[in-house]
Amino acid sequence: MTQELSIRLPGGIWKRIRDLRKQVNEMSATLSVELREALVMATTELVENAVKYGENAPLFEDIAVHVTLEPTSLTVEVCNGVVERQPLQELFERIDEIRESVDREALYTRRLTEILSDPTRPGKLGLYRVAFEGGFDLDCVLDGQKLCVRAKRELVLPWQPFISKTTDSPSRSIASPARPSSAGAA
Questions:
Q1: Tens of pLDDT along 73-112?
Q2: CB burial class (10 A; 0-12, 13-18, 19+) of residue 49?
Q3: How far apart are CA 41 and CA 37, in angstroms?
Q4: What domains are there in the chain, each with its CATH number?
Q5: Angle at 23 between CA 184 and CA 26, to 5 degrees
Q6: Which residues contact 105 (CB under 8 A, 6 or more apart)?
Q7: Hey, which residues does 147 pair with through a beta bridge?
Q8: Does this model's pTM top 0.85?
């Protein structure tokens, strides 16, 4: 018996993620290479998680990305829709584990070892990368059908941002949907 499946998905999400990476890299050009790379990596990991695990919720259809550079911190917040709450338990547990850990490197290494010992298991390495490699603290908030995951890195020494002549604020931010609102589910 022949079985077939045909489905149409909105295209271009990976191009939009590449464009977002470029925007974050450009907006953070005044940061050190290490901080800029950490910020781009954290943004990418959180957006990819929203694409993989987010849902097209009636009250929150799009993925929203907000990146903020301040003199003493870097923040990435990615929000996506949620319909099924059960899968979120693993996310909450993982973020709690990272937040409470005194050795993020050990968590990261343990996860790598688990992945190498059983290649059939899903990776789920991204949050560990953000915390260990990027040096970000993680938090998440569920508000109805909207889940926001936030990564924040406090800076020991404030960086000196480029301040345009039209603003007195040392803070810069971008807010960017990961896809146009006319596209389908993420």
A1: 999 999 999 988 887 998 999 999 999 999 999 999 998 8
A2: buried
A3: 6
A4: 13-157+171-177 (3.30.565)
A5: 175
A6: 132
A7: 80, 142
A8: no
